[in-house]
Design goal:
globular; alpha+beta; 151 residues
């Protein structure tokens, strides 16, 4: 039985690496619309990287981070079991290039879902409906001052 478990874990890790590599953005990057975002990297783990317009202000950045977290945190296959936190990092995008440093980062607690010995499903729905206590870190000036832009 231990061999089967080891093989299953090994296969899952190998498949995750393959799928994760394919989920990266290889197409030419387009600038996001004002007030919007584009997905730069989402491999199904606890971190999603999005691109925002280089002209974004602080209020718009916080709004985009929260909207991206709301839209992306509950996707099927999202793996947040190890830390129970979900992160969204926003990078500035200008003329198809991405800033070296992130402009903002959102950290959100996400309760474990469908765990074998978890609470009653009604309690989980209630916890998910509570207001999110998001931790937001803004480094907009740092991202704007980084002269090195990577594609």
């Amino acid at each position: 039985m231990d061999r089967i478990a080891a093989l299953t874990v090994g296969f899952a890790l190998l498949a995750g690496c393959y799928i994760g590599d394919g989920a990266r953005l290889h197409a030419p990057l387009v600038d996001p619309p004002p007030g919007g975002y584009v997905i730069l990297e989402d491999t199904g783990t606890a971190v999603v990287r999005v691109g925002v317009p280089a002209s974004v202000n602080e209020e718009e950045l916080v709004s985009v981070l929260k909207r991206a977290a709301d839209e992306r945190q509950n996707l099927l296959g999202r793996d947040v079991l190890l830390g129970n936190h979900f992160f969204v990092e926003a990078y500035l995008v200008r003329n198809g290039y991405v800033s070296e440093h992130f402009a903002g980062r959102l950290r959100r607690y996400v309760p474990v879902k469908n765990w074998p010995n978890s609470w009653d499903s009604r309690a989980m729905v209630w916890i998910a409906s509570l207001p999110h206590d998001d931790g937001v870190s803004i480094r907009l000036e740092s991202a704007r001052s980084s002269q090195v832009l990577v594609r």
